[in-house]
Amino acid sequence: MTIGSIRIEERDRRALLLLGLAAIAALIIRYGVYGESAPAMVAAPDSAAVAEKRLQNMRRIAAGVPAREEALKEAGRVLAESEKGLIQGATGAQAQARMLQTVRALGKTEGIDVRGAEIGEVKAFGEDYGTVLLAVSFECRIEQLVNFLAALSREPVAISTNDIRINLANPKEKTVNVRLGLAGLVSKQLAPVKKGASSF
Q1: Buried-most residue among 84, 160, 172, 183 (CB within 10 A)?
Q2: Which residues face 196 on adjacent strands?
């Protein structure tokens, strides 16, 4: 019996030892291994708030997309309408000839004989366009010149003056000699890649 009771005590000791080790292991697992993951569950409401803000931002951006697309289409329409004023021609020389033809036709409507055309160079204008340069000479009265310049500004083709020189021609007739420098807008393809100032 004594021998049997010693064995029971040893079994009890072993069982208590195993139970203690299991309890320590459970505590280590509970607070050591999984202890750090507990705050992540507390932060979940914050993550939901952040996700909701992101969703609201995405909805706001998505709501603005149709308006931006419409603005882009409108800008494209305006650009296409503006580019109708470009002087047409397969080459820079053809564009200059067309510009000279337009200027002479406008001069005729005002009773001005446009003559003495000087052809300038074709050069780049910004990144998307080119300019063709032309200088013309004529004699007219001051009111004819004013009317001619007004008609030129109303012309749908993109032509502008870049130089004007006026000298007295005939005091009795009240006429002046005019040398007018003109620039016309063309597509970039007609302008050679060239740097430097133009000369007439």
Answers
A1: 183
A2: none
